[in-house]
Design brief:
The chain is an alpha/beta fold and about 270 residues long. It is built from six helices and nine strands. It has one domain (about 1-270): Nucleoside phosphorylase domain (Rossmann fold, 3-Layer(aba) Sandwich). It has a five-stranded mixed β-barrel. Strand 3 and strand 4 form a beta hairpin. Its EC number is 2.4.2.1.
Amino acid sequence: MIKQITESTEYLQSKGFDNPEIGIILGTGLGQLINEIDIIAEASYNHIPNFPTATVEFHKGKLIYGNLAGKKVVVMQGRFHIYEGYTLQDVTFPVRIMEKLGIKTLLVSNAAGAVNLDFKKGELMLIDDHLNLQGGSPLAFKGVSELGERFADMSAPYDADINSKFESIAKAQNITLHKGVYASVVGPQLETRAEYRMLKTIGADAVGMSTVPEIIVANHLKLKVAAVSVLTDECDPDNLKPVDISEIIAMAEKAEPDMITLFKQLIKTL
């Protein structure tokens, strides 16, 4: 893997990706942040050596480098999921590349279902902790200790200082920002009523199919990490209706301006 990371990093450096400070992973329906970036360089995933390729139709496949709110950023426009058939090492490979390019902070967004029924669709949730229900670890491979501490500490995976800044910005901008626990499942099927009840019982406030692998690897690499979910649907097992994926994407897009405000204002303070 070290050889692959080196090849990918050198390719991107040759394309002008020069010492970004902050990495950003954009989730479902959250691509408009790209319009706020003064783009210096970009690379399609299918051109980057050793990179996976996005297979979900509403996930773009591009790594973008530029200036945002006075900082150099590298942005994943489209992410990878294990439900697409990738391994956890594939899913998290881009995080290792961004760290090699120079990032010290990783900001992540995603779309999630609200398990906590006090949270409503269209609102945002700051992730304070998570439950890894994906049945594996992106660190469970031979040679991982050559890339960082094998037994990565996860006592505080999300940076308290960044989370505090997010909360202050949300308050100042009058944006509803809940705080809670994100459960990451494999997917791609949505949950059953019994599964939603289980998730609530074990302490989840929201559920999705991404993010946690990237967070684990970012902690492995000693990056500062924060993540925000757009709550796209309400997961009430007693009143469960069939899910319309186009409606979920539309809800993510509706909440997107608030997410962009949060990210832009935060980056100014980093």
